[in-house]
Amino acid sequence: MSEALDKAEAAAREASMNTAAVQIALAAVELAKAAQAQPTAHPHACDHQHKPGRSAGEWIGIACAACIGGVGIAFASIAIAIGGISVAILALVLRSMWADFQKGK
């Protein structure tokens, strides 16, 4: 009878150990599920939305616009210089004509 009691006691211990192992395994599975459900927090996370960077086509367009604008400014500067020289020559010619007109009186 004691032999049967010992076998029953050993079976009960094994069952209790198996139950504890199953409980630990189930707890680990639940913990893994909870970890997957929570979003990972980044240390430098921010709430605002970042704008995507410019594409290569946009940068080429900006460069072309800058070049065309630079050429336009250069031509405008040349036109202003030519206009200034023309006004200076006109002033000298009119001064010379005025001096000749004053001498003739």
Description:
With 105 residues, the chain is mostly helical. It has two domains: 1-37; 58-105. 81% of the residues lie in helices and 0% in strands. It has helices at residues 2-37, 56-104. The protein is rod-shaped and about 160 Å long. The protein starts with a helix and ends with a helix.
Give the SSE map:
Elements: H1 2-37, H2 56-104
- Stretches where pLDDT falls below 50 for ≥5 residues? none
Q: Name the shape in a single word.
A: rod-shaped
Helix content: over 70%
Q: Tell me the count of domains.
A: 2
Top keywords for this entry?
single chain; 105 residues; mainly alpha; 2 helices
Characterize this entry briefly.
The protein is an all-alpha fold and 105 residues long. Helices cover 81% and strands 0% of the residues.
